[in-house]
Amino acid sequence: MTQTRAATLLTVLTALLAVLLTPTPASAASAASVQEVTGFGTNPGALRMFRYVPDGLPVGRPVVVALHGCTQNAAGYGTGSGWTQLADRWGFSVVLPQQQSANNSSLCFNWFQAGDIARGQGEAASVAQMVERQVGDVGGGPVHVTGLSAGGGLAAVMMAAYPEKFAAGGIVAGLPYGCAQAAGSPYVCMYVGATQTPDQWGDRVRAARPGYAGPWPTLVAFQGTADYTVKPVNMTDLVEQWTDVHGTDRTADVSDTVAGYPHRVYRDPAGNPVVETYSLTGMGHGQPVDPGSGVEQCGTAGAYVLDVNLCAAYRMGLAWGLSAG
Question: For residues 30 and 109, is the Cβ–Cβ distance under 8 A?
Fold first, then answer.
């Protein structure tokens, strides 16, 4: 080998070695992903715990518990709803409980079973244990709970049975706490609604945590007007239940439109927004999303995740102050 060829080869090898040893963004830090967590407690409801924690998340950031709907799973709902996307954008962690077929063949959370909706029991206790584990692991700040359909029903359960753990709740096509018991059947609750006065609705929440004097979680609710699986009357009942809990009337203090949809805000006597609703005109049963990279956009359309040009996760996060950083 001539001296020139040897020098050239050495130059090429040196350059190649430099490339291999130089860290790239992909090799320096892997992107966050949904991970399963085991051993989070006694888990009386036999649920699985998944979570999404953005890389480099500072200590003390908010936590969102997001409960999937029937036939869905934790990771799919976290991505489809837009919660993991917003977690990266705004800096918070997401707990994603997952139902198991042994508990419910349709993978619905059992929002209607007495043994799963009482404090200290069943699925409600399992989710509470997940919250304790997450807050302990990441030094979490304020905790919020949300869910779709049966997940929305369980979100209402968590707000009622464990109000001290949650700053706010977001219920999408869900049911008020104690609805199945009030109606005598989960199906009557879903398709017809339960006959209760606002005081009776509020009493069901207060009975779930006897002696608790507040503060109570605030509520943001979303409902499609063409939803034939969970009828819109259930959002009306949610308004009655949680305005009564917060000691305010059922007359909206704000009535406007957002992305073309009717939007209402109910304030407590001190002027604080405590209940907020979005009525999605013409939308069926599902999670509202608005796919894209715009400031107000999030989510990915799919089964029971509906592109209606409004992302419910974004609107909830805005109401909860998650965008403030």
Answer: no
Positive or negative torsion for Cα 146, 147, 151, 156: positive
Instruction: Work out the average pLDDT over 217-236.
Output: 98
Cβ proximity of 264 and 243 under 8 Å: no
**pLDDT value at 50 more than 60:** yes
CB atoms within 10 A of CB 214: 10
Q: Which of 313, 323, 325, 295 is nearest to 145 (CA)?
A: 313
Q: Structure pTM?
A: 0.90
Catalytic residues: 149
CB-facing half-sphere around the CA of 84: CA atoms within 13 A: 21
Bond prior to 215 in cis (omega within 30° of 0): yes
Reduce the DSSP state of residue 50 to 3 states and report it.
strand
- What's the Cα-to-Cα distance from 256 to each of 82, 279, 297, 325, rounded to whole Å? 24, 11, 20, 27
- N-terminal to C-terminal alpha carbon distance within the chain: 62
